[in-house]
Amino acid sequence: MNVFCVAFFISAQLQVLAFGFKRNATFRPNVVMVMSDAFDGRLTFDPGSRLVQLPFTKYLREQGAVFLNSYTNSPICCPSRAAMWSGRFVHLTESWNNHKCLDGNATTWMDDLRKNGYHTRSLGKLDFTSGGHSVSNRVEAWTRDVRFLLQQEGRPVTDLRGDETTVRVMTKDWKTTDIAVEWIRKTAASLSQPFALYLGLNLPHPYHTDSLGPTAGGSTFRTSPYWLKKVSYQNITVPKWLPFSKMHPVDYYSTYTKNCSGNFTEQEVRDIRAFYYAMCAEADAMLGVVQVRWWACSPCSTVLLFTSDHGDLAMEHRQFYKMSMFEGSSHVPLLLAGPGVKKGLQLPQPVSLVDIYPTLLDLAGIPTPAGLSGNSLLPLLSPAAVPPAEPRPDWAFSEYHGCNANASTYMLRQGRWKYIAYGDGLSVPAQLFDLSSDAEELHNMAARFPVVCQRLDSLLRRVVDYPAVSRKCSATAGRSSAAGGSAWGSSTQTSSAASAGTGTGRGTPKCTRAPSTSGWERSPAPNPVSAALLLSSAPRLQLQNHRLSF
Question: Is 77 noted as a catalytic residue in this protein?
């Protein structure tokens, strides 16, 4: 069957759905989870969905529920996946970066399903245990605290492959998807017990840039004319960038280390964004292949879930990649459909990836183990669900301790506000964004709303003693920074004052404190000391022979 002409086939299967799930021992739904890599969650609903055709994501949204404010618990691959699989915040499992994550014997929700009679299968990208990126991330765990800038990524470039008939650009993901579909068709269909299938995709993560060597990250946005035709190029905007002098010091550091401090033409920026959206369209098609098999085999007994480990800034804030609390990086898709999920729900509650663990166990009627950071989403998804014993939190939390950011970062999203604290809470100024009026996150409102900062910081400290976590992360990485993961020259006395807090709100940062402007961090020129460690910039791709048409 041609998977790109299945809309009629899928529509014909709608009549067999029956919603209204009540947890009981006689019915346990199958679970199919598709997790992409670097998929911006804002593309799964309006207005972001107008940028690119994502028919299968749209279909899943219409037949189930989409969370409008879903967040990663750490905007980088391995820690984010560690949180999703374990159901615990990354500081609790010490999943600091792409080198240090979960132990191989850590318990996951898949383990709990298996112990309770589910037949389980995991395919594709997992990436939640320690050591997967060992060489580069061992180095980068140190370089983020040194006092000179290091360009750690290749300059973002685009790469057009094939022609208008080239569908399978990311062949590795397509092969894994084919295996998943065949497994559902042959194995799952013959099982007498419920099953849980996980499919991990690499798309739309940028491809490895070959010219930068085997240990470099991904800075190449690669697609084909087939997928570019799915992009509404006329709707792509060039993001507004703050001048370097107005950037928050951590954002400036990220811009430089991601090799985005040089000049970019508007055409370059538009093309990078267009190629990224096209890569999202290819990932959506893989989700569609799974959808077809889902509807053909077991639409009344299988829950289908789609999410991602993090997003991609795609040149917003003069950055690409993730590693940031800005929406493009931290906002992830979260859509569910199947028995127990009311159709057409668009849920505004803030949620995060740690909620997946208790949700899947709740759907399966399995008691939730103690110590999880998340909460079941089932009460939000189905009016027939058992009400929770306690109201779920009205906030979402994320943290980051990896490369390309020179301070441990903590984000709390509650209502209209996004609050971001750094390091010890004193050395680096906090940020506060009003997402209801500033969706682009260009205006730090911390100085204007100090009371809001104090309230959110107090709440954040009840979630995590972040100065202590910052110090622990620094010590784990072998760094000597006394300020708890900050390279901004704060004193030991300042750090001690912050550590005196007990997680109850003491030591609230001064939100009006101006960003550091001392010396090197405002200079775009590379430091001579770091020249031997600098990664060479990837050459710009000339699109003259591949003129885009939309």
Answer: yes
Type and span of the H or E element at 451 = helix 450-463
What span, in angstroms and rounded, lies between the C-alpha atoms of 241 and 66? 30
Burial profile 76-100: b = 16 or more Cβ within 10 angstroms, e = fewer: bbbbbbbbbbbbbbbbbbbbbbbbb
- Quote the distance between the C-alpha of residue 544 and its chain's center: 33
Full DSSP string of 177-209? HHHHHHHHHHTGGG-SS-EEEEEE--TTSPEE-
What count of other Cβ atoms lies within 10 Å of the Cβ of residue 208?
Answer: 17
Say how far apart CA 313 and CA 525 lie, in whole Å. Answer: 23
Structure confidence by residue, pLDDT tens digits, 434-480 = 999 999 999 999 999 999 999 999 999 999 999 999 999 888 766 43
| pLDDT attached to residue 132 | 63
Q: In 3D, which of 344, 288, 291 has the Cα closest to residue 66?
A: 344
Task: Say whether 522 sits in a helix, a strand or coil.
Answer: helix
Q: Which two tokens stand for residue 490?
A: 């704060």
- 487-524 pLDDT tens trace: 333 322 223 222 333 333 323 333 333 333 232 233 33
- Count the neighbouring beta carbons within 10 Å of the beta carbon of residue 188: 22
The highest-level CATH class for domain 31-406+517-546 is alpha beta
| Cα 310 from Cα 292, distance rounded (Å) | 26
Query: For residue range 36-58, what is the model confidence (pLDDT) as tens digits?
Result: 999 999 999 999 999 999 999 99
Q: Count helices and strands (H / E) in the chain.
A: 16, 14
Phi first, then psi: give them for residue 33, nearest 5 degrees: -120, 125
Please report which helix (H) or strand (E) contains residue 409, including its range: strand 409-414
Length of the chain in terms of residues written? 550
Q: Single out the catalytic residue among 77, 101, 280, 473.
A: 77
For the chain, percent helix, then strand, then coil, each to nearest 5? 35, 15, 50
Distance (Å, whole) CA 205 – CA 339: 31
Nearest to 4 by CA among 43, 56, 44: 56
What are the beta bridge partners of residue 66? 335, 346
Give the type of residue at 104: G
Considering only CA atoms, which of 122, 1, 125, 3 is closest in space to residue 56? 3
Q: Taking Cα atoms as reference points, which of 294, 323, 300, 492 lies closest to residue 399?
A: 323
Side-chain-side CA neighbours of 516 within 13 Å: the count stands at 20
| Domain chopping of the chain, boundaries | 31-406+517-546
The helix/strand/coil state of 360 is: helix
Considering only CA atoms, which of 256, 270, 217 is closest in space to residue 547?
Answer: 270
